[in-house]
Amino acid sequence: MKRRYRTCGAATHDSDIPECFRKRARGDLPLGHAHSAKADNKGLSQQAHYDVVILGAGVAGLLLASELSRVSRVLVLERNERPAVTKYWVTTEEALTRNADLASAADWALDSMDFIAFDGATYRSEGSYRLWNTTALTCLLLQRTQERGGVVAFGQTFYSYARGRTGLTIMANGERITARLAIDCMGHQSPIIMAEGCGRIAGYYLLHGATFPMTGTLMPVALHNLSLSEHAAYVEAFPTSDGQLHIVLIIPARELRPSTNLSAEFEFVVRKSPYSKFIADPRKRSFLGGIIPVVRIKRRALDRLFFYGEAGQVHPAASGTALTRMLLSYRDVAAFLADRLHHDRLAASELSEAPGKIGRLNQAIQLALFRDILQWSSRRFRTIVVEADRLRNHQLMNELFFGDFDTTAAGVAMTLRTLTKARNWTLLSAFAGGVARAITT
Ligand SMILES: Cc1cc2nc3c(=O)[nH]c(=O)nc-3n(C[C@H](O)[C@H](O)[C@H](O)COP(=O)(O)OP(=O)(O)OC[C@H]3O[C@@H](n4cnc5c(N)ncnc54)[C@H](O)[C@@H]3O)c2cc1C
User: Fold this and answer.
1) Does domain 14-84+134-200+294-351 have CATH number 3.50.50.60?
2) Which of 78, 109, 402, 424 is the most buried (most CB within 10 A)?
3) What percent of the chain has pLDDT above 70?
4) How many angstroms separate the alpha carbon of residue 121 from the centre of ligand 1?
5) Where are the domains of the chain?
6) CA of 284 to the centre of ligand 1 (A)
């Protein structure tokens, strides 16, 4: 493992929360900070106006806010009292090289990640990966947005919107805010996507985990099907340079069911499983987790409304590795949106042309693979691990992991040939299923 960048430590206790987050928790960024305001008889409060309202201050919302606030009046509305730092992120190294100005938020450079079956069979994928420091990245983007004149309002829950002739009216808490363009970055919680029929849910990854002080040395684990089961669940474990271990239990699920008892299974992982010996004190922890939706997106935009991040399914569906695609695309997407704002070309058909979209074929392959993953038993996952190890084609596995297959006719033919030659039947069926679906739909 190579370490190239210094990082600021991840927040493990409330007292560790960086000042840039705490300030916002006190609510000292009132909406009244709007650039123009007029009395509104219909609303309950003053009506503020912005060029762009971004819904959700997750990484997607903050990436776009940090860029768009250079050229437009931007307001970000976030439901939570402060940014969520309950996620951590692996990307390709390219995501950092293309964003050298974000280097202070980068953590380890990794050159391998393990995929481990229930009986210990292992595929070690090799590549150039980069782990990010969630807290540092969020802090940096918040700071940039503000320095460039953007407003980030915490504790503001978006609940509805109305369409007018020259803009949208966004309703959040007691506020009515008009905007020429709204960007939905609310992730799986977006009420707009489903209500407006813009996507169909294929399923979710449910993630429950924690960050602990680490003891010993552990190589990065991408997926470990620790417990033998009819429906495989996976442990993901990444050490970071600040001596912390991030462990998450991941369950693919077709539906969100409250009965899924992730937390009890996670306690087994941290207190009794082989991972317990890498945890200095299981009581000293901070929560890590969330829900990653897998959606077949039908529309990337409505008039004056653009979907980005998980809400826009920017990421490859099966692997939940959204940050790579976001980091590779957000500047182009922001420049595109700024241009459309400038020329007032904000119809759905115009906005849908935004760059950064996962290709149709890659999306179909990823969706086919995710449908397969929903059915995986421990045995089937083991077959995948063994096949991947036999294949020894790290480039292909990385293309799969980051949703970036070569989808030219020659590229598809080559992948099919490679998988067939290596008798990689499981991956071949998902790949061919995706190709067939992309051709027929
Ligand atoms: C434990 C874990 C590990 C992960 N590991 C990786 C990884 O290694 N690599 C990778 O690429 N990806 C990883 N991911 C996925 C990655 O974290 C997500 O894809 C990414 O955070 C999505 O960003 P987003 O901004 O689109 O959505 P979110 O991060 O979900 O942000 C949405 C925001 O919108 C806010 N919001 C929701 N509803 C409203 C409302 N009504 N009004 C106002 N605000 C609202 C939410 O509070 C939230 O802050 C991981 C996820 C988890 C949970």
Assistant:
1) yes
2) 78
3) 89
4) 31
5) 14-84+134-200+294-351, 111-126+203-293, 373-440
6) 24
